[in-house]
Amino acid sequence: MRALNPACKFLGLLAVTFVLAWRFNPVLNLAVFAVAVVLILTNGVRVRTLAAWMVPIALLAIGMFFTGYRFSADASMPVIAADFLVSDSRIWNGLAQASRVLAYAGVGFLFTLTTDRIYLIQSFRQQFHLPPVFAYGLLAAWGIVPQMLLEYKRTRLAFAARGLKVMPFSPKLLRPLLVKSIRWSEELAIAMESKGFDGSAPRSCYAPVKVHAKDLVFLLACVVLLPVLAAVFA
Description:
Helices cover 71% and strands 3% of the residues. The chain is mainly alpha-helical.
């Protein structure tokens, strides 16, 4: 997954989300979630990292299950899916709601945890023709984020050294960070203009991002194969 073209991966996974929105089937949702988890773990993501990301998603899925269970249209109607009889449609409705949360989260995490952000912007710039202004702006913003985190830690240590206790999102911490972020953005904009970065001028690509056969295979599997399987085994 990490070696796939980010633009093709984005289109493929976006097609998967449309299929999930079209089908109201917990079996399909859980199958997509299971495949996403397997792909995430086989691409170098630690189990502990994925588990930490899944904690709020699991809580949301539990809440959606009880919401679907409580507010079902017809609680007495049995449901048959994949030759399995569910005697209470409230359970089926709750499973559908909860599994949809898991499926969407799995697809989102699959894209987020297996995609390099620099490679993503380069791919969008070359395959989707993203305007250079937005591409340079995103790259510059992501470059400032580590400096912002470091400055946040320094500010907290400065308050701790003076014996002052502040909340994690206290205005006393965020106000100086906001001022310095504006200053960094202005300095970065001036530096880019002085080095000849112009959004309207034609530019060549230092690192071309190409679309390979495996990218097209993945895209076709998500756009064509998955909808067909979802319709056949519904």
